[in-house]
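Case study B.
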Amino acid sequence: MPENRDPVVHLDRGFWIVTAVLGVLAVLAIVWWIVAPIQSLMPEAVDKAQEIDALFRFLAATGTALWILVCGYVLYFALAFRRRPGTPDNAVGVQIHDNNKLEAWWTVIPTVFVVVMAIFSIRIWYGIEVAPTNTLVVEAIGYQWHYTFRYPDINGEVAEMHLPLGQPVTLHVTGYDVIHSFWIPAMRLKADMVPGLINTLEFTPTRPGRYEIICTEFCGVDHGLMHSGTKDDPAYVYIDPPAQYSAWYARTQRKQASASNALPVAGARTSIALAGGDPKAGRAIFSQKCSACHALGPFDQRIVGPGLKGVLHDPAHPALVNGARATPENVANILQTGFKGSLGQMPNQAANGLTSKDIANLVAYLKTLK
Amino acid sequence: MTAVAVHAGGGLADHIHPEPQGFFRKYVFSIDHKIIGIQYMITAFLFMILGGMLAELIRVQLMKASGGLMTAETYNEVYSIHGSTMVWLVIIPLLTGGFGNLVFPVQIGARDVAFPWVNMLSFWLFPAAGLMLYASFLMGAPTAGWTEYPPMSLQGAAGTSMWAAAIFLIGVSSTMTGINFLVTILKMRAPGMTFTRMPLFVWGQFVTAPLLMIATTALGAALAALFIQRQFGVAFYDPTRGGSPLLWQHMFWFYSHPAVYIMILPAFGMISEILPTFSRKPIFGYKMIAFSSCAIAILGFMVWAHHMFTSGLAPALQLPFMVLTMLIAIPTGIKIFSWVATLWGGVIHMTTSMMFAIGFLATFTLGGITGVFLAAVPFDLHVHGTYFIVAHLHYVLVGGSLMGILAGLFYWYPKMTGRLMNETLGKWAFWLFFIGFNGTFLPMHWLGMWGQPRRVAEYDPQFQGWNQFASWFSFVMTAALILVLINALWSMRKGKKSGPNPWNARTLEWQIPSPMPYYNFKHVPSVLAAPYDFAEPLPYRGLEEELTGAPPPVPAAH
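Model:
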């Protein structure tokens, strides 16, 4: 018969001391993650950053504590129960198969942790996803290999991103050629720039300064240069005090009016009389001329162009393909003159066979899409 | 017992074919699951040498913030092929085709898998696919990483289509292996080998097989669509013509997340064999370990979009994927705690195999914990696509799967060669590997959080210190793996003779000679209990002649 290890002599030796030591280490790890100076290593530039860091502290604290306990017990058991010289070859360990109570505990406790973690994550996620009102709507577009930005009522695309301190921002991002990503480590936020899709980040800048933008989705040979550390043409976001931002905005608006990538039609007043448009007639034209490319669903329900639900009602709606704000005048304008640019195209009045009256009717119809 | 009666008389169960004698039929185009397993292992380890060399090229390049060893173009090819190699040509073949083939049919008391010829085809597709993958270097290798997201992969050089074809082929091989193993386990267990008596390594293969069968088809479809778009211009992934780049991501991850479990469940099985054997103790919580594998496999199909939290998933979809992903922590935790409890009160034999298994507990647990971090959407928004991901995935694939593979290699080596690997060299290799691995990948966690994106040939100079640190330690890790290789080659001829059961283990493969004979068992045994009661006599009947000189039963006439 194989020899059983004598349970009385060996099993509990040092167990409670080790448990106490591991408990202290786990508590120290938790305390460390609660007080760790994360901001001093990585500035928190927006309101969401602090919340995400709080979640990280919670995850890191529980994770480190758990890891210390697992590794501690593994090390302790491996040493305490190692086969000692002189142990007969046929000696066996304690022949236990399971322990329902213990197994129930280590199922229930992690479940509780998972539930807490999920609730914590969902609350912070909710704060990230839900848009504040009265936001500044900015668009970022990823190219191989740089970023450009579009601002309401600034003509064309600008190379720098400026945001006013304390002003809630809705940032729409998309990609021109391949998938890029828009990551500002100081904001702890990231969204992929997917061609044909607009992703949105909502946040409020809380700390002035200059922060780098980094691409984290492989986008070609210069992917690694699409950030500020090594590139001649660095990608930064500048968070400015409101007065400074206004000055930058006014300056850029002037400069862009005549810039080489200016769009002479965007933002101009339309020559079409929109008053008296008939939504019913517009609906008929829509189904004949527009519905091949545009759905009536939400923006991201894309056929070739985006879905048009709420296009004239949502203040945070992404800009039109020519960069102009989605207003009745600008919509009429793009229907009339058409557009061909980096993010797509829109056929003009002649190509679509639309009369000016048709355009007025269409705009009236689009107004009804809430 | 009826089962015993069948064997006493030597009925149908003793129907065996004569061993083929020619070199080609015996060693090259073999239909013997053990030879095929060894073929898988040799091929996979050869590809691991190539993939490891590519890994070292990556680490040498990143010694300097401005790169310098390679152009960015070459660097992108190198890490893309490194990732593809390690996933599809090393880890998956080693764990399923390699150790799976070698061990599990014997463990269930079968003489071979259900479809030996399909098994041979599965194997031979694998080196062919591997050569195709490496041939892509000649025509411009893919550059968009092992994930090859379109539209980027649509811009890739001609080799990207070759890559898609190669991975498709390896997918065909995987699918056939999955069917083969599943049928074998369902239909060919020895009498008395009920599901609750199966060794846990068999459980690992049993839950992996359906993953291979079901998930790989999604990858095949995605790859076919990529190939067709690249070669014939059909716009599956082109948004300006009604396609969607996200279509690829969904199909790719519908495969590749279950593939993560394909790459770890068999390793869980290995750990569940090695820990009890060297602790001289029953595995703690056998049923919970087996059931938690099933839970992981089922949940594993419902979490793929957690790789896409930043890609533009509808917000309402993010929550279920987050919560389901977090739930996987529970069965995984059950396993880890059960393994730790298995050590308690044991008589622990610190062999090299056991050291790798214990090292696995430390490193895999860390990788699992950071996995839960990544499930939390808000934190994932910060670290997605950074070195934090690189750290996490290497902790589960190297600290988990590869540690398991090395533990399994030292454990089952005698069953392949009849000799033991050298323990002194093995322990050196373990410590160098453990230190080198942690030194390489631990700093990547904070590098990612601070702002180093993955897949970059050059990076912000402020990160150079930690990158050099990682590179130096990666050399230590490579040295350890070279030691393992030398050990395996040297021991083949010079290693200590092992005898049938050097570890005093209780599963069936240890009850027959080493190396295992062609027909595995002279008489198919019957099984009376699970194999983990070290204080009891062996729970098998019908093994009396296995270790004697008695001739095998008369081969069946053709």
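Chain B has one domain: 27-541. The remaining cases will be described in the next quarterly update.
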